[in-house]
Specification:
Layout lengths: L1 H16 L4 H13 L2 H8 L3 H15 L4 E3 L4 E3 L1 H24 L8 E7 L1 H18 L3 E7 L6 H4 L3 E5 L8 E6 L2 E6 L1 H7 L15 E2 L8 E6 L2 E6 L5 E2 L2 H9 L4 E5 H10 L3 E2 L6 E2 L2 E5 L7 H15 L11
Parallel strand pairs: 3-4, 3-5, 8-11
Antiparallel strand pairs: 1-2, 5-15, 6-15, 7-12, 7-13, 7-14, 9-10
Helix pairs in contact: 2-3, 2-4, 2-5, 3-4, 6-11
Length: 322
Amino acid sequence: MRLQCVHHSLQSFQIVNNDWDLIDLKVFCEVARRSSFVAAATELGISPAYVSKRVADLERALGVTLFHRTTRRVRISDSGEAAYAWARRVLEAADGLNDSVSRTDRRLSGQLRISSSLRLGRNHLSPILAALHREHPELEIWLELMDRRVDLLAEGFDIDIRMGEVSEPHLVTHLVVENARVLCAAPEYLARRGTPKTAAELAGHDCLLYRERHQTFGVWRLQGPHGMEAVKVTGPIGSNHSDIVSNWALAGHGIILLAGWDVAPALKSGKLQRILPEYRQEANVWAVTAAKLQSSPKLRTCTNFIMKRLRQGPHALDTSIR
């Protein structure tokens, strides 16, 4: 009798847990990422009613509530959080299977979602990704630029090109180039206000404040001759957009702390001058993925393509300023 009960339970488990397919998981993950049935429908190119049906079917198949729904918002449940982690693994495994069994001469295809900061993405990544698409026209590439740290798993990105430390233990890092943020200002500003001789003197200058993704606003942590120094800086103007801050610096409004590759052209032309060259802020550039590249030939090929062209070629990062 006991064996019959166990057999019956296994049969029921198989029936319930096989009553979904990959499209259900894709729809579910998109709703989870966007906390919206309508936004998920727009992204997937299907109707909100179909999205709702797919999620309801998946909830019925799994026997749990995946989302708490109100008239104003959709919030993922505890069971939904657990299901999301597994759904991502299933979808990644499916992609890996497709890549692994495909012929080696087959073009890459499917979605590739990449995130990065504004200037790095616009000035360097965008032409590199255009070249990637020319080589692999069946790839559907989405590049999203933002000055904040993204959550690759929760937001559904395959690759994040970022500067600075990578603190998330579940992510896999690939060093693109060694890089540092440096201090500089326009000759006009230095002629008017003088050149600071020590890091402490920065507190008495107009510093153009820019919060770059994860940086602490108003505090510059600099590696110098005596180790790490934290300087509280202020200024009359600031922005969360690096282009604006760069333009203000070029116009002589104050001192900036930006990536060496970003200010290299202005430093070489003399439009900006470096100050306190013995001080720097480490900000290596990384390609960050949620999965090991060995598990996905597509991800490996695309990541290596991006890294190679950020190191050399017409759109490479200029790391001569250190």
